[in-house]
Amino acid sequence: QLRLVESGGGLVQPGGSLRLSCTASGFTLDYYIIGWFRQAPGKEREGVSCINRSGGSTNYADSVKGRFTISRDNAKNTVYLQMNSLKPEDTGVYYCAARWDRLCTPIQLEYNIWGQGTQVTVSS
User: Fold this and answer.
1) pLDDT at 102 (0 to 100)
2) CB atoms < 10 A from the CB of 102, how many?
3) Whether 20 contacts 37, CB under 8 Å
4) Residue 30 CB-half CA count within 13 A
5) I need a surface site. Which of 27, 36, 60, 106 has the fewest CB within 10 A?
6) C-alpha span between 34 and 50 (Å, rounded)
């Protein structure tokens, strides 16, 4: 069974940091692009960041540029999302997703393996 499992979410104060992990089981991430998405209460799910196979190309939503960093460790079959300077508007459920491809895409329907999500709450 192909699975992605997110971890690392929690409650943090504004200005704080969290590191999310996305670990694959049942397959190797080497040939997959990985995207991070989030869904705030009452809003549609949106793209946050994406990383290509090698980790040499990344992209970010404008709202998180300069604060979030995506990276991958293929030896550990894991992708990370380092989130710094967190704001209340970063609150939501964060999902990682995988697609067998070379280049990142922001189109959610093109990702065919999804994790169950991890809750991030930014509040004082």
Assistant:
1) 87
2) 12
3) no
4) 3
5) 106
6) 6
Q: SS3 helix, strand, coil % of the chain, rounded to 5?
A: 10, 50, 40
Measured in degrees and rounded to the nearest 5, phi and psi for residue 11 equal: -100, 130
- Distance between start and end Cα atoms, the chain: 39
φ, ψ (nearest 5 deg) of residue 55: 90, 0
pLDDT, one tens digit per residue, over 74-109 is 999 999 999 999 999 999 999 999 999 888 988 999
Question: pLDDT per residue over 41-69, tens digit each?
Answer: 999 999 999 999 988 999 999 999 999 99
Contact (Cβ atoms closer than 8 angstroms) between residue 46 and residue 105: no
CA separation for the pair 62, 35 (Å, rounded): 15
Look-up of token digits 């070379």: 102
Rounded Cα distance between 114 and 97, Å, is 4
- Are the C-beta atoms of 52 and 102 separated by less than 8 Å? yes
pLDDT in tens, 24-39: 999 999 999 999 999 9
